[in-house]
Design goal:
alpha/beta, TIM Barrel, seven-stranded parallel β-sheet, two-stranded antiparallel sheet
Length: 277
């Protein structure tokens, strides 16, 4: 079984599943094989995954629809989190829209696709610099008050933007780009740990481009009879108690490999070798 973490009062597994990759090429349209995507989602839950992260912009709408098709009615203890605030004009294209009216409409659409009356964790997907973050978060507070969402999170934020969001609402999660190669959110992770906020690193494996054959990551993986991706995930889990990685994949074999990383405990020397402090 996967070790437990907590988002606010919600117990979840230490490794979640990012559902962006179950869509088509360019995160656009349906997957090549819908049956494979549905089987992957069901296998994730069978293996103990209890946190699935998605967004209305994945597809758009495709990831949420597939999650509901595969898993609804949802098993007890499964947390499906989604995000709003990005529009999709085409494959690999993303446009920010965090106007309150857009967020309210996006949340309503997500509720329908996910077949939910209340979304356990709804995250602001980006910062729209045309709109004060206080207005965007304020819209989510209104949805929370109306019983449409239970908890509020933010994504792609700076320390200052997180502080502004926390002045308006109780923020339970931060989802930023972070992995062994990109550690620009290091300070923010420590802020989250101190505040009891979960940090959800997106792109946690850098699409497999973390290790060259002679790199420290590759050497440690070889000595552990593990893959570089497994060692990278193990490092993330040891980096902070606030960490909740959500590696995404379209392959059941890669899913199994990722989940096995939760059982790897690096030595202090291995940890320092990978990311010297």
């Amino acid at each position: 079984m996967i070790a437990q973490a907590t988002i606010a009062q919600l117990p979840v597994g230490q490794i979640g599943f990012g559902a962006m990759r179950i869509t088509g090429r360019g995160i656009w349209g349906p997957p090549r094989d819908e049956g494979e995507a549905i089987a992957l989602l069901r296998r994730a839950v069978e293996r103990g995954v209890s946190f699935i992260d998605t967004a209305d912009s994945y597809g758009p709408g495709v990831s949420e629809t597939l999650i509901a098709k595969a898993l609804h009615p949802y098993p007890a203890g499964l947390v499906v989190a989604t995000k709003g605030g990005l529009l999709r004009p085409g494959p690999d294209r993303w446009v920010t829209d965090c106007r309150p009216e857009h967020l309210r409409r996006a949340c309503a659409d997500s509720l329908k696709r996910l077949k939910l009356e209340c979304i356990e964790l709804y995250q602001l997907h980006a910062i729209d610099h045309r709109i004060p973050i206080e207005d965007s978060i304020g819209a989510l507070v209104g949805l929370q008050r109306d019983g449409k969402i239970r908890h509020i999170g933010v994504s792609n934020v700076s320390e200052r933007e997180l502080a502004r969001a926390r002045a308006v609402a109780s923020i339970v999660s931060v989802q930023n780009h972070y992995n062994l190669r990109d550690r620009s959110s290091d300070i923010l992770i420590d802020v989250c740990a101190e505040a009891g906020i979960v940090f959800i690193p997106w792109y946690p494996l850098a699409a497999g481009r973390l290790a060259s054959p002679s790199s420290p990551l590759a050497r440690i993986a070889q000595s552990r009879r593990a893959t570089p991706s497994q060692i990278a995930l193990a490092w993330l889990l040891q980096r902070s108690p606030a960490m909740l990685p959500i590696p995404g994949t379209s392959s059941i074999a890669h899913l199994e490999e990722n989940l096995a990383a939760a059982s790897i405990r690096l030595t202090s020397d291995e940890f320092r070798t990978l990311a010297p402090v």
